[in-house]
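User: Please predict the structure of the protein below. I'd like the answer in structure-token form so I can feed it into my own downstream comparison script.

Assistant: Understood. Taking the following sequence of 146 residues as input:
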Amino acid sequence: MNEQTGHPAFRIQLSATPRGARLARRLAVAQLADWGRPYGSAVSDAAAHLVAELAANAVRHGRVRGRDFRLGLTLLDHGRVLRIEVTDPRPERLPTVGCYAPDGESGRGMLLVEALAERWGTDTASEPCTKTVWCEVACPSPARLT
């Protein structure tokens, strides 16, 4: 529970490595299950894809040697909205949609984020020097999942 907002929240700092990105996805779906959104539900599957993409971007494009990235999950609007946040130490490297070579093997991740999320954006901070990429998805209450 976020003591400032009163919303259910989960925060963790992870190593900026492929292993850290995989762990972010696993921890996110485990936390959602603890909040009553089980593995395999629509919100769990969407969150798994979104966290995987944002964490992979933090590791690949936002990495600074010796600095970690942070994953944050918050249930907003009485649990009807899941906000996912991934923070890395590269505020100058903002994500873009649609910058990829047609025959390239990468560059389409933010298209996935745009397709799965209700909305997404970025916030930068100068102290400490960070960038947070966030997205929000509809999150049905546990009572409506059955």
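That's the full token string. Residues 9-144 form a domain with the Heat Shock Protein 90 fold (CATH 3.30.565.10).
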